[in-house]
Amino acid sequence: MPIHKIRIPGYVIVLFAVCLSAILWILPIFFVVLNSFKTNAEYLISKIAWPNILTLSNYSDTMVTMRYLQAFGNSIGITICSVAGLLVLSVLAAYKIARVEGVLSNVIFLLFLCIFVVPFQSIMIPIVVMARTVGLMNKLFGIVIVYWGLVTPTAIFMYRGFIYTIPISLEESARIDGANTLQVLFFILVPILKPITSTIAVLLSLQIWNDFLLPLLLLQIPQNYTIPLATMRFFQSYNTAWANILAAAVLGSLPMVVLFFTMQRYVINGVISGAVKS
Predict the structure, then answer these.
(1) Is 127 exposed, middle or buried (0-12, 13-18, 19+ CB in 10 A)?
(2) Assigned domain for 18 exists
(3) DSSP structural state of residue 225
(4) Domain boundaries, position 74
(5) Whole-model pTM?
(6) What is the C-alpha separation between 97 and 104, in angstroms, rounded?
(7) In-domain check, residue 39
(8) How many domains does the chain have?
(9) Does residue 133 fall inside a structural domain?
């Protein structure tokens, strides 16, 4: 009797791979959250067992010890001001580069792209020296200005590609009606750029919120610590209180998790819109 080969449909293989990947990603997060509700004794006994009593004392103690509310305020202020400034500067620069054709525009765009090939570690010392020279060290607005310089090229790159897909006839019609350049940009193009703007805002917010190295270099006063810095200092001081350390990790990640899941449909719409338009 002939033995027939078992054929597995392709979608079953893809579904299995997706489920396996999801499990591999979710399991570490699950155990971090689970162990953050344990006592330190329970954590040392077993990392995978369910806690005997779910308690929030780890979170309340950690918030007080690491000055969570102060660090949260610093992080949210830096992130909002940085992203808002980045969006304004980037859309202005990208519009000019995209709509003014010529060698100069191409050279300027290539200079912006140089930041992608230059490792941050190779320029962090000059950044610190420059920040100290102009008085930006240990100041929240100082690190915001540095972010404007470092992260703007990413947004310019994304905006420029999207602006190229917008018919220039829309701008010409507005100019015939008497609109100037800024009116064309902010009243015609900016609403069209809403999908990619949402994508850029979320991605840059995640990048700036989770950044550790630049705040470590520029913000050396405890009152100015961001969430990553406060978590690091908490770990250095309480490196045996693992349940509290995991609670600090959850507290530091929670705001951006909420932001991402709230804005994920806008991020996906921005990516899809850019792909379809191109």
Answers:
(1) middle
(2) no
(3) -
(4) 60-277
(5) 0.83
(6) 9
(7) no
(8) 1
(9) yes
